[in-house]
Description:
Elements: E1 2-8, H1 30-47, E2 53-60, H2 68-81, E3 89-94, H3 101-109, E4 114-120, H4 124-130, H5 136-148, E5 154-160, H6 167-179, E6 184-189, H7 197-203, H8 212-228, E7 232-235, E8 238-240, H9 247-253, E9 258-261, E10 266-269, E11 275-280, H10 284-292, E12 298-304, H11 306-318, E13 324-325, H12 326-333, H13 337-340, H14 342-350, E14 361-362, H15 366-370, H16 372-379
Parallel strand pairs: 1-2, 1-9, 2-3, 3-4, 4-5, 5-6
Antiparallel strand pairs: 6-8, 7-8, 10-11, 11-12, 13-14
Helix pairs in contact: 1-2, 1-10, 6-8
The chain binds iron/sulfur cluster (SF4).
Residues 11, 14-15, 18, 20, 22, 60-62, 95, 118 line the site of iron/sulfur cluster.
Amino acid sequence: xxxxxxxxxxxxxxxxxxxxxxxxxxxxxxxxxxxxxxxxxxxxxxxxxxxxxxxxxxxxxxxxxxxxxxxxxxxxxxxxxxxxxxxxxxxxxxxxxxxxxxxxxxxxxxxxxxxxxxxxxxxxxxxxxxxxxxxxxxxxxxxxxxxxxxxxxxxxxxxxxxxxxxxxxxxxxxxxxxxxxxxxxxxxxxxxxxxxxxxxxxxxxxxxxxxxxxxxxxxxxxxxxxxxxxxxxxxxxxxxxxxxxxxxxxxxxxxxxxxxxxxxxxxxxxxxxxxxxxxxxxxxxxxxxxxxxxxxxxxxxxxxxxxxxxxxxxxxxxxxxxxxxxxxxxxxxxxxxxxxxxxxxxxxxxxxxxxxxxxxxxxxxxxxxxxxxxxxxxxxxx
Length: 382
Ligand code: SF4
């Protein structure tokens, strides 16, 4: 089944750490909605008949800035042009300040059945450091509002590793999330990306980033804390109560096909070799202009041969609790890690980074998860 990602490129203001594509100055959403629906129709001509749609994900940007009528028009266009008769999950990213009972009722009526709430922290100094619009009270109240609005399936995002954050804030963030009984938490270590206001402040010496050791300690604490409270740590950044794993994200980690619509959205399609990955233009005006001419708004296309796909499979699967299936790697990608990386595997196991191989599966230990990229680099077949 195909996953559909829709990128909504609008935000009310810029968070200091963010390097996603968005604009903060757009007065009217109408030209974008028009362009997006054109892109959906354009892509449907090639891909709609190949696979039914399994999941839909509205990300951004801030999708909750869209009026429900606009979201409805996008969903209607998807329904008209793709087989959406068996969609398992439709997720909407929302920001706490946009949530009202009326908004939740309207988006539920559209068939949206999962929310991803950008809380980031329950503490005011953290929120101000990140330049989030919402305040600590809104962060705490939103979980109750989401439930009262009939959403039992939702996730919250929390960010750790903020400079100068008192250590007790992070543990308190997790404690509050657990006490609110949220079904899914995504935790991200703060990364300082080029071109962001945060990087600019770092370059001007205005703060000291958290040390790698502190980040690692906080991550290890997070894993133990949430697991003790009944969460499954099913992917490096993702913790779910049983039955609440994200279905859409699972497609990314399993090399399933997905189509991305909207500026900067990525797509992946593998029906024969080479597979294709393409990225849309990262500019709203250009995106709209290309679609006015019925031209696919693609910036870059990458053709992926089997060896690149094998590398990706290793990278993606090591992030998951299900782990890297050595037999699948051999049958689907033609790589035998037990021959190609036998010494590395023995060394990683004796150093405590991976578990002993069981059921032909390689899984990271908690220690391995703190250095996932390093372990991955040692096992890449390419
Ligand atoms: S973090 Fe989210 S709300 Fe903040 S600027 Fe980025 S996309 Fe917009």
